[in-house]
TrEMBL record:
GO terms for molecular function: zinc ion binding. Transmembrane segments: none annotated. The keyword Zinc-finger applies. This is MYND-type domain-containing protein. Pfam families: zf-MYND. SUPFAM superfamilies: HIT/MYND zinc finger-like. Keywords: Metal-binding, Zinc, Zinc-finger. Residues 372-423 form the MYND-type domain.
Length: 573
């Protein structure tokens, strides 16, 4: 049992950060008193929140220390009579706590201050506790705090906006699968509360803020962690948010529902959903809502920016086939494309956007379904799993079509023929995408085969230069050496276990002998249809892989000869 001296309590109360850090490390079940909670919270009052940057930088270290003390308190009192009262007091003071978490994150952005004093760790711990806490009704916390009128969602978005803090958060999420689940469940549960907030009379700006911040958070995590992306996908995250938009449509103005649709479009174009699922949501659900409300929406700069950005992204991703395009074209026609009613007819940016939408719409509308590689009659019941392809069979085509959203003319078509020409093409497209996006460890043989095949174009370039750069050198004396630098998104986006601080270790010691054997065998060979290439892949100062590959030129009866991967060996990291 560690006794807490009165001097330490006095210094902590006076605002000495070192004393607060010491207090956070000292308290336990045997020495905790409610006075310690009062000391931590007195430095986290919302009235003390600074507004100027200089004041934020000055006051953030004390707030970080107070948050560190606050994080330690729930564990210190978990088996004491004070536990429930302590939790209730913390929830009552949630406004101030969130405000000061926000200040600490602002300080990280402004100063790049290192986490040596535990700033990242403390803010993560308190944020996780607040994110996963439920109220008496089992609902997540959605309180606002003064004077910024922000929410816990905005605090979370500020966290993921900073590379170092976001990386720290991802590392901690990946260390515990239950953390990933609690994080994504928190996003979905907060979405489900939005219709209730509207019914309670919460300002529409607050509802919009929640939707917008969720989009920011999801986009950030999609870029940072394939593991989080996979959980969002398997949890049907986008399905839930589509239902939320449908629930809100009747209670919102046209302007507001168009903004929500734009944000849903942005969510849809992230990798959390394969295009196959995205089209199933966009064509029969989102685009009709968008088309109904767009002509009646009052245009301002914010809406124009959101409409332009979201539709351009969706069009470039080819997510509006072709039914969504028809709905969009109809909406654009009703939307006064000249811009006269909006007073925007002379704005080059707006007219260029309208023209671009028309052109891409024409391309998608006139292209064949085989060219687009997607089906236009996807039923909402179409199932999609990350690891397995599962398609719910429809009654009309012995495949995956459904007549729920089809016209009478569509019902009279040869469904089996449509299944053969459309659904199977769609399935092939899905399978190819799944092969390219399944995340694998960089410490596996499968990954090394993947990067060798992905780098095949580099080998072709080297082969074309070989005779010019090394004239007269026998092929069996020439081992090509190729270096690949910092992250290549096409090559390394599937890696999900490379994190700062991880210990590099050999992939497989036996491969060193395999490598030496490949080199010796190649040098003894006189086969002109073999090539040996030594690749070096590096994507930060800590990690690199040396990969030796042997390609062989093979003849094919139905096509030209091709270089194929014959053998490979890796020396490790």
């Amino acid at each position: 049992m560690a006794k807490i001296s009165p001097k330490l309590l006095r210094e902590a109360k006076a605002g000495h950060a070192p004393a607060l850090y010491t207090l956070s490390r000292t308290i336990d079940e045997t020495n905790y008193t409610e006075e310690i909670l009062d000391i931590a919270l007195m430095h986290l009052e919302p009235d003390l929140v600074p507004r100027e940057k200089s004041t934020i930088v000055k006051m953030a270290p004390l707030a970080t220390a107070a948050l560190g003390c606050l994080v330690s308190i729930p564990n210190a009192c978990k088996n004491t009579p004070f536990r429930q009262r302590t939790i209730d007091i913390i929830l009552e003071k949630l406004d101030g706590i969130l405000a000061w978490v926000y200040v600490c994150l602002e300080d990280i952005h402004l100063t790049g201050r290192s986490s040596g004093n535990g700033g990242f760790r403390f803010t993560f711990q308190i944020l996780k506790r607040l994110w996963t806490t439920r109220d008496s009704k089992g609902e997540p916390l959605m309180e606002h705090f003064s004077p910024r009128h922000c929410t816990i969602l905005l605090v979370m978005s500020r966290w993921v906006d900073h590379p170092l803090s976001a990386e720290t958060l991802v590392i901690r999420l990946l260390s515990d699968p239950s953390s990933i689940k609690s994080f994504t469940d928190g996003l979905i549960d907060r979405g489900k509360l939005l219709p209730k907030l509207k019914q309670k009379g919460v300002a529409q700006s607050s509802v919009n803020e929640h939707v917008n911040v969720v989009a920011v958070i999801v986009n950030s995590f999609v870029k940072l962690s394939p593991a989080v992306t996979q959980h969002l996908r398997t949890s049907r995250f986008l399905d839930e948010w589509t239902r939320i938009v449908l629930d809100l449509e009747q209670s919102l103005r046209a302007y507001e529902i168009v903004l929500l649709c734009c944000r849903l479009l942005i969510l849809t174009t992230t990798p959390i959903e394969h295009p196959l699922r995205s089209v199933a949501l966009l064509a029969p659900v989102v685009m009709p809502i968008f088309a109904r409300n767009l002509p009646n929406a009052k245009i301002d700069g914010n809406l124009e920016l959101m409409v332009t950005a979201s539709l351009k992204t969706a069009l470039e991703s080819r997510l509006l086939f072709p039914r969504g395009i028809r709905a969009l074209r109809s909406a654009m026609d009703d939307f006064d494309p000249s811009g006269t009613k909006m007073g925007r007819s002379k704005l080059p940016s707006w007219t260029a956007f309208i023209r671009g939408v028309k052109e891409q719409g024409d391309f998608l509308s006139n292209s064949s379904l085989e060219e687009l590689g997607i089906c236009d009659s996807i039923a909402p019941s179409l199932q999609h799993d990350v690891y397995d392809t599962e398609i719910t069979m429809g009654a009309q085509c012995s495949g995956c079509h459904s007549v729920v959203y089809c016209s009478l003319q569509c019902q009279r078509e040869d469904w089996n023929e449509r299944h053969r020409t459309e659904c199977l093409a769609m399935l092939r497209s899905y399978e190819a995408s799944k092969r390219d996006n399944t995340h694998i460890s960089h410490q596996t043989r499968a990954f090394h085969i993947y990067i060798a095949k992905a780098s095949h174009s580099g080998f072709n370039l080297w082969e074309a230069r070989r005779e010019q750069e090394h004239p007269g050198v026998p092929h069996n004396e020439l081992v090509a050496r190729m270096n690949f630098g910092l992250p290549n998104p096409h090559l390394f986006h599937r890696i999900d276990d490379i994190r700062p601080g991880s210990q590099a270790r050999p992939i497989c010691p036996a491969w060193n002998a395999r490598r030496e054997g490949m080199v010796s065998d190649f040098r003894r060979s006189n086969d002109t249809q073999r090539r040996l290439i030594d690749w070096n892949f590096s994507w930060n100062v800590e990690y690199q892989i040396s990969l030796l590959t042997e390609f062989q030129l093979l003849e094919f009866e139905d096509g030209p000869a091709e270089w194929v991967l014959a053998r490979h060996a890796s020396t490790g990291e």
